[in-house]
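Budget justification aside, the reviewers requested a transparent look at the raw inputs and outputs of the sequence design task funded under Objective 1. We therefore reproduce one unedited record. The lines immediately below are the structure tokens for a 76-residue chain.
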């Protein structure tokens, strides 16, 4: 699978989000990215953070916030 840094996601990229309890995922959905922007730095590490906006389902508490070196698998 192709991966990208969260900060390098472009509008139209798709990724899967999941939420669950225990071992098995309870729900999953494909999210289409609409915008990625830099947020304020983390207060205790001073690392850059990025927010990924998209069409999250109602049960997912988005947007995703990720550090500049974190990666995500893309859907195809």
């Amino acid at each position: 699978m192709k991966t990208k840094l969260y900060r390098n996601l472009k509008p139209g990229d798709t990724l899967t989000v999941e939420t669950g309890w225990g071992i098995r995922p309870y729900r999953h959905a494909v999210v289409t990215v609409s915008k990625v922007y830099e947020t304020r730095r983390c207060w205790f590490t001073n690392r850059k953070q990025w927010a990924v906006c998209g069409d999250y389902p109602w049960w997912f508490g988005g947007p995703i916030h990720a550090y500049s070196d974190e990666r995500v698998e893309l859907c195809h």
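The radius of gyration is 13 Å. Residues 54 and 70 are 18 Å apart (CA to CA). Computational costs for records of this kind are itemized in the attached budget.
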